[in-house]
Amino acid sequence: MTDTSQTLNVLFLCTHNSARSILAEALLNHMGQGRFRAYSAGSSPRGNQQPNPLGLEVLQHAGVPIDGLRSKSWDEFAGPQAPRMDLVITVCDNAKGEMCPIWPGHPVTAHWGYADPSEGDAPQDVKLEAFRQTMLQMRRRLALLVNLPADKLRPSVLQSTARELSIP
């Protein structure tokens, strides 16, 4: 991002790109007011991976559009035709520890870890509540990001800004 009036491109990463990264993408696009454009991807999405239906349900219930959300590989964002990212955020501990591609433009990176709301064999209503709680946690952190003054989003300070927001 060379100018603070430009849109900041943010890529959220998780292993399968079915839950946390999808939630973050949808939320930031909804909250970003044109200052941010969010994307999501996974390091190893399963074949025919789809966004988790419970995640889509909590987003819809919160009034967040889900049109166009899909699970995809991070390879989609590593090539020369990909949108240039300004910020790449891992949202799961597994993706944090993986060797990421070399992103075009060498974006700033940060880790904002969230527990996996889809993990385990809990009943559907318990998992739905876990998704809701994860979405609320993300919304609080993303609200801090979108309300930052432009000087905190300049390339020279974006790294420290993004990492400061990782502290709950």
Automatic annotation (TrEMBL):
The Phosphotyrosine protein phosphatase I domain, residue ranges: 8-148
Pfam family, one: LMWPc
Gene3D superfamilies: 3.40.50.2300
GO process terms (BP): response to arsenic-containing substance
Record key words, sorted: Arsenical resistance
PANTHER family, A to Z: ARSENATE REDUCTASE (PTHR43428:SF1)
Protein name per UniProt: Arsenate reductase ArsC
Organism: Diaphorobacter ruginosibacter
